[in-house]
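---------- Forwarded message ----------

FYI, see the ATP-dependent 6-phosphofructokinase record below. Original note from H. follows.
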Amino acid sequence: MKIGILTSGGDCPGLNAVIRGAVIKGDSIYGHEFLGIKDGFKGLVLDKISKLPRKQVRGLAKQGGTILGTSRIGPFEHGGSERVKEVMAKHGMDAVIAIGGEGTLTVARMLHEDGIPIVGVPKTIDNDLSATDYTFGFDTAVSIATESIDRLRTTAESHHRCMVVEVMGRHVGWIALHAGLASGAHAVLIPEVPVTIEQIAGWVKATVTRGRAPVVCVAEGFTLKGDQDVVAKGGVDGMGRPRLGGIGEQLTPLIEELTGIETRCTTLGHLQRGGVPTAYDRVLATRFGIAAVDAVTKKKWGTMVALRGTDIQSVHLSDATHEVKSVPYARWEEAAILFG
């Protein structure tokens, strides 16, 4: 078979490990050929395609980013499914492996429904896909956020300041929850659990009373409970989804005003996407790549590889995209015991 591989949506540590795992197994075990599709679905409809031989993926497991490039441009703005079929036919492409998050896999599902042979691989630092226990990239993002908060705590203690640390996650709080717990943050604010600015100020004051410098870890999609107009505004991306970010800067003066404590904000932003993947993410991504080639070989079209417990399984793309995997309230409640 001749298989095209693309990476779409936000970049993420571990993408190259998926590509490497798929190409090596596909070449050595099945004798498949591979084509690299540049810049996601945009490259598929604009015919930015070249050969992807085994020698080109050597040593990729530890490399961050994606050698194929990525974009947030969907195919339906450039001819849709018919254009995809036309380009695939031109290159003799028998199937597509699409590596991406919720937006990418939704597009993959739509293409499958239009008769295109496609298999998905879940990628997102946000860990918000409902059909898999974890996605690669999440562990790396949490590790970077945790280390960053550890560093910020030392400067906060030195100056007796409150530090607000904004992390990614879109509309779920998995990164904030895990990084906040791991670093011992004194408050963790997530989109699933709105709280009032008075409650946040209470946690900050309680921390100061104990002689500590407060650290507030906030997910970019968090909003305050009540009538306060604290909403991140950043336009929309190429797939029409709102760009988030800025909630930390908006909370900082409110906390300082209510507590009288000097408060500073650090937004980690794309630091969480960059650099080399953790060992866990390298292993998971490689396993996903290997399993994706198996799924293509078995012609399991319209499916996605997923982690269930310690096993890699195939699930329907519709199962992965019908709802976002949110943080259960009980998980946040566990962390809240440690606040203040």
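H. also flagged this: The first strand starts at residue 2 and ends at 7.
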